[in-house]
Amino acid sequence: MSEEDSTMTTTTEPVRRGVSPTALPTRLRDLVARRIPWRSLEAPFYTDPDVFALDIEAIFGRSWIFAAAEAEIPEPGDYVTITLGRYSLIVVRDDDEQVRAFHNVCRHRGARLLMEDRGSVGNIVCAYHSWTYGVDGSLRFAESQSADFDASCYGLRHVHVRTVAGLVFLCLAQETPEDFDEVAGIVEDYVGPHDLTHAKVAAQIDLVERCNWKLTMENNRECYHCAGHPELNCSIFPVYGYTPENLPPRLQGDAERLRTATAEAIRTYDALGLPYAAREELDTRTTGYRIEREALDGAGESITVDGAAAVRRLLAGFPTAKLGRLGLHLQPNSWFHFMADHAVAFTALPISPDRTLVRSTWLVHADAVEGEDYDVESLTHVWKATNLQDAGFVERAQLGVSSPAYLPGPYSSTEYQVEAFVNWYIGRLATLPAFSEQVDGLQPAVHGDLTW
């Protein structure tokens, strides 16, 4: 048996007794099949343990998942661990400075290898019986084995890993989505100029939201609730998702400032050769995404309380801080903001049907000096406040969908990205063999003209 045969993962294993992507209970197939477009999902999607188990296998197990920034593992032996439902994964930089990923499971009797969220190792040593693995995943030591023991058959089980513009993505599936190369090329074109491969982590904050992961993502995909984010509204125009036709009178002034700021920003982007046009395929491909460079309010430089840059040492040696923000959404669980002075990466990691870990990571130039070039509190203030506000909103949502009185309600036209996320999610479930004869291809959401 080759090492490749012995280490590659598969997504066909049952995740709970009676629940697997290839043989689903009728109630789950019916739940997916009867979803009504432009309405929120039925309660079991947010509360049922079997749906949660299916999400881990069929969504997180078959998609490219943002796991970490390369800056989190700058040196050989540096690692982070990621938890996705029952899976624990290791992301490590090997001795050749390549990023690798493995299941966090000893090949002897299955003990968990690394218990910490992050750290640095020379080798990966199991604390149970001392089986020892290199950071390339190869088994280097296993005491008292038989004469015919072949260590090459017992390396760590590999997980597909890709780095894109300084961001690390994992895929648990044996066969990865075929469209990722194309999406990765688009992301590289837009994000590459920020040179995150020469960045460092200035701060990272984990927040457990008391809700299903889909409620976290739905909340992220709309600004219908943004009146509840006063700190964020200092720099981000609160017209996200609106069109000139459905813009309420209270936001007319914001829209006019955005038009003026956009015209100025485009002149700067053109002069620097930075791509900025919106590109969006949220629910029309396997690797759904949206990316756009756009103006910021206030000083127009960063997501801070006044819109001014929070870091004196700019990323990539940009000649100006006034580059607005580059926003990126990736299905199923991540979103990003890239500015001239720093970047923020967010990932939503499902813990249980009603708990989600939201990890926020702030990246700055590798040579920026804390206390001289930036202050961590000023850098993180807006998103710390916004994340806590969002945690309150989604907890309310979880409590509501858990009530017997809950019925799916209609999305506003401003929530088109929520519809696109849910449509993508249902569409991915519908591609499972268990649905092949029951759910036809779903239609993408109809999006409005977002030109201001």
TrEMBL record:
Keywords for the protein's UniProt record, in alphabetical order: 2Fe-2S, Iron, Iron-sulfur, Metal-binding, Oxidoreductase
Keyword Cytoplasm in annotation: no
Cofactors demanded by this protein: Fe cation
PROSITE patterns attached to this UniProt entry: RIESKE (PS51296)
Annotated region described as Disordered, given as residue ranges: 1-20
UniProt cross-references to Pfam families, sorted A to Z: Rieske, Ring_hydroxyl_A
Molecular functions per Gene Ontology: 2 iron, 2 sulfur cluster binding; iron ion binding; monooxygenase activity; oxidoreductase activity, acting on paired donors, with incorporation or reduction of molecular oxygen
Ranges of residues in domain Rieske: 65-170
CDD domains registered for this protein in UniProt: RHO_alpha_C_GbcA-like, Rieske_RO_Alpha_N
Gene3D superfamilies recorded: Naphthalene 1,2-dioxygenase Alpha Subunit, Chain A, domain 1, Rieske [2Fe-2S] iron-sulphur domain
Protein name per UniProt: Rieske (2Fe-2S) iron-sulphur domain protein
Organism for this UniProt entry: Nostocoides japonicum T1-X7
